[in-house]
């Protein structure tokens, strides 16, 4: 019997609800809010960035069919977190806060990135 290998849970520098700057690819220079993080593929969907067109088949409710524009995914390495205090893109790290929990911080300013920064 084979053993099932479980990989550790990923910890990314961005989370759902963060404002990010795209630093690579066709959408370079654009800013947006992260709608979804796809952990299995190391990718994220950013609102209004990397738009793709999907062809929808005709259905009973939509007999004509249609073209739908939606956000494509971008690799996590091409995204940089925007510091909520300064509005500048920054690298992030993790350090203990006063409650003894790990919290993200801006490596540029040293300020903790508050959890309230993320839209729940």
Automatic annotation (TrEMBL):
Residues 17-47 form the KOW domain. Residues 49-113 form the Large ribosomal subunit protein uL24 C-terminal domain. Keywords: Ribonucleoprotein, Ribosomal protein, RNA-binding, rRNA-binding. InterPro entries: KOW (IPR005824), Rib_uL2_dom2 (IPR014722), Ribosomal_uL24 (IPR003256), Ribosomal_uL24_C (IPR057264), Ribosomal_uL24_CS (IPR005825), Ribosomal_uL24_KOW (IPR041988), Translation_prot_SH3-like_sf (IPR008991). One of its GO terms (biological process) is translation. It holds the Pfam family ribosomal_L24. PROSITE patterns: RIBOSOMAL_L24. It comes from the Bacteria. Residues 81-120 are annotated as: Disordered. GO terms for molecular function: rRNA binding; structural constituent of ribosome. GO terms for cellular component: ribonucleoprotein complex; ribosome. Part of the 50S ribosomal subunit. NCBIfam families: rplX_bact. Belongs to the universal ribosomal protein uL24 family. One of the proteins that surrounds the polypeptide exit tunnel on the outside of the subunit. This is Large ribosomal subunit protein uL24. It comes from Spirosoma sordidisoli. The gene is rplX.
């Amino acid at each position: 019997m084979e053993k099932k290998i479980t990989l550790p849970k990923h910890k990314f520098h961005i989370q759902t609800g963060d404002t990010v700057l795209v630093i690579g690819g066709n959408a370079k220079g654009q800013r947006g809010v992260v709608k979804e993080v796809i952990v299995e593929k190391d990718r994220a969907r950013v609102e209004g960035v990397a738009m793709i067109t999907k062809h929808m088949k005709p259905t009973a409710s939509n007999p004509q069919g249609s073209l739908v524009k939606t956000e494509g995914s971008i690799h996590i390495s091409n995204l940089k977190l925007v510091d909520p205090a300064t509005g500048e893109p920054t690298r992030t790290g993790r350090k203990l806060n006063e409650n003894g929990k790990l919290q993200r911080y801006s490596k540029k300013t040293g300020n903790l990135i508050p959890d309230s920064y993320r839209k729940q």
